Amino acid sequence: MKKTLSSILIVIIMLSMVVIAGDSMTLGNIDSTWGSVDQGVGASPGATCLRYSDGPSGANASPNNFDGGITMKTNDPSIQNGDNTNWNQVRYGRPSGESGCGSDTSTYYFGRQSGLAFNGVDAVVYTPPEEPTDYGVLEEFVLGKMCHVNNPISANNAFEWTTANLTISDVDCGPNGIVVDKDGNPVPEGKVDLTYTFSVQLDETTNSGTCRYPSVTPCADAVIPGQASGNNLYCQYENNTVDSLVAFIGFTPVGLDDSCVGQTFNPDNTMGIFISQEGSINCACVWAAITNITPSAVQMNYFEAEGGVEEIVISWQTAFETDNLGFNIYRSESMLREGAVQLNDALIVSLVPPGSTYGADYLFVDTTAKPYTTYFYWLEDFDVNGEVTSHGPVRAEWVD
To answer: What local confidence, expressed as pLDDT, does residue 7 receive?
Structure first.
């Protein structure tokens, strides 16, 4: 199997957005706290041995480097609201060999739990696209560094959903713009705080059977962002008012000890779902952009198959992928779907986050096709609610 991302298409229709070329906005400190944890629909809220923490400090430090200071408190997310320049964390689960939940101040116990950590950047200078009335690539900026502490734990009550409560402070509209409210009245301070709440699913898979995501041994888990709600930014440039919001772009894997400050956005290394291998602390830079469009549907631009030399290449391109987890590919020697065989061993993970304002290019190479045989292919997209939508069939044959 081969899957590549030739480009992430951050293609936005910005018909109403008029920004003076070269103008730039200033974004102050970026911070995110973790909200309440839920086991899922119909289940009891919370998670086994749940606790939140403020700290440790240090943007490049490991979330387990407790020399930087850390405060913990069971079941109380507000403990994260003290210092907005350090790690905010939520952990759960009972470490191997433990019978209870340990002390609220035991860093040894806390360090062996699983969970999520986030440390935002201090400030960003954001340059919008010079010709926003055209299709174009937005200027990406990094929100901060997120880590999934993926330790082996036992838990009767699993962590399935939480929220990431993002705050971007002191946002202005650049030297040529004025921050206004939704009615067009200037904001006295000249700056505004933007706040967003993202739903976040933690898909902690079992380590037996077929792995759902591309994995080393055992099966990897996934952090899956969902739809966001929050306040818009209103900027007035001469007689034009721009109504925009912050859109999450995706995750770029980064080393545990590496900084996200100064990183260059790389679409070929960015995914909308963060795959986290078992038994380690896995980290990523979190990217965003400012836009004025919100997608309302999943849209497929094309799905096609082309015969190659001793292989068949299946490719597809999406425009939006609202709540999409990934794809499966099926093949048959008949136009009838019945009896079609799934070709991919694991879910072909979406390369963009649910609710995205952009899509992606995908490629899958079928090297198991036989010569001189016509094949039919179907593509299924699989969403966060378990619903499946089928596309195809498309037809191709192996070329000698």
So the answer is: 29
Angle at 330 between CA 327 and CA 334, to 5 degrees: 150
Low-confidence ranges of the chain (pLDDT < 70): 1-23, 40-43, 59-60, 126-138, 156, 227, 292-298, 354-357, 399-400
Q: Which pLDDT does position 136 carry in this prediction?
A: 31
**Contact predicate 72/34, CB 8 Å:** no
| Among 2, 147, 165, 183, CA closest to 78 | 165
pLDDT computed for residue 23 by the predictor: 61
How far is 382 from 47, CA to CA, in rounded Å? 26
* Nearest-angstrom CA–CA distance, 166 and 200: 12
pLDDT on residue 40: 65
The residues that bridge with 264 in the sheet, in sequence order, are none
pLDDT of residue 5: 29
pLDDT of residue 22: 40
Dihedral angle sign, alpha carbons of residues 186, 189, 191, 194: negative
Interatomic CA distance for residues 62 and 66, integer angstroms: 8
Q: Report residue 363: phi and psi, to 5°.
A: -140, 135
Q: What is the pTM of this model?
A: 0.71
pLDDT (0 to 100) of residue 58: 75
Confidence at residue 138, expressed as pLDDT on a 0 to 100 scale: 56
Q: How far apart are CA 201 and CA 159, in angstroms?
A: 9
Q: Which residue has the tokens 């304002």?
A: 357
Q: What is the 3-state secondary structure (H, E, C) of the chain?
A: CCCCCCCEECCCCCCCCCCCCCCCEEECCEEEEECCCECCCCCCECCCCCEEEECCCCCCCCCCCHHHCCEEEECCHHHHHCCCCCCEEEEECEECCCCCCCCCCCHHHHCCCEEEEEEECCCEEECCCCCCCCCCCCCCEEEEEEEEEECCEECCCCCCEEEEEEEEEEECCCCCCEEECCCCCECCCCCEEEEEEEEEEEECCCCCCCCCCCCCCCCCEEEEEEEEEECCEEEEECCEEEEEEEEEEEEEEECCCCCCCCCCCCHHHCECCEEECCCEEEEEEEEEEEECCCCCCCEEEEEEEEEEECEEEEEEEEEECCCEEEEEEEEECCCCCCCCEECCCCCEECCCCCCCCCEEEEEEEECCCCECCEEEEEEEEEECCCCEEEEEEEEEEEEC
